[in-house]
Each structure stands twice: as structure tokens, then as C-alpha cells.
Amino acid sequence: MPPPGPEYYAARRALWLTPRGARFGPQPPPVPTPTVQKLDKLLRSPDAVNSNEVWEGVGPVWKAIDAGQKLKQPLPMKLIIKLLHAAWLRDSTWPAGAEAPQTDDIMTDLPSSFFLPPPIKPALKKQLQSTPKDNSVL
């Protein structure tokens, strides 16, 4: 890995965006639990967003996620995304018919120096170095 800085960020981001199978070899898909199967079936139903019957089953899981609570069992990320999208459509956080952008690489055209803080002027640097450090806690 490169030293900390823009190149390090780019390398970590590339690893994060690389599918798990490409890094660790193919993994067999996990066997869905009955809860996962039930949630998936509910969210696949027609008009799931507006159906009160669907939200009677999905609502408690959404409320737990929204409140930041730990789920009783892990859920596949695809199912969580489906649930979040449906919940955001239901409460109008996500406008109906809106599409997410295809990529988040909006800053790829910027030079790496764009992300670095401006250099400290020599006079200020000298002043900072000569100032005695007070390690007391306020």
C-alpha cells in the first residue's frame, strides 16, 4: 500500500470496490434463512411500497435499522438495500421514479493535490514551533 495520502485513499477504495470473489475466490452463496426468504418475498410483492400488509412484516426490521439497532440475524446487503429503498419511497425520502447515478467517481478528474491542505507559510510554521506547548487539560 502507498503511504497515507490521495494514492492510499485510491488504493483502499479500489480494494473496497473490488468484489469479494475477485479477492478471496468464489464463495458459495449462503443458504437464506426463513426470515430472509420471508422479507425477500414481501419486498418482491407488487406494490410492496404502498401495501400496509407488506409493511406489517417489513416494518419492524426497517424500524430497527432506522433506529441503529443491532439486527437479530445478519441480512444480505442486497436485501437491506431493497428494504431501505422501499422505506425511503414509502416516506418520500426518495422521490418516486428517481434514479441513482451510475457512478460515484465524480472527483476522478481532479488532481491529487486538490485533496492536500495548503502548505503552512514559513513565518507561521516558525511561530508554531517556537510556541511552548501547554499539555494541561481545560
What report would you give on this structure?
With 138 residues, the protein is mainly α. The protein starts with 5 loop residues before the first helix and ends in an 8-residue tail after the last helix. The chain has helices at 6-17, 20-24, 34-44, 52-66, 77-90, 122-130. The chain is 48% helix and 0% strand. Helix 3 (34-44) crosses helix 4 (52-66) and helix 3 packs across helix 5 (77-90).
Give me a quick take on this structure.
The chain is mainly alpha-helical. The chain has helices spanning 6-17, 20-24, 34-44, 52-66, 77-90, 122-130.
- Note the overall shape: elongated
As a whole number of angstroms, the C-alpha radius of gyration is: 24 Å
Sheet-strand content, in percent, reads under 5%
Please estimate the helix content: 40-55%
Element string (H = helix, E = strand)? HHHHHH
Strand tally is: 0
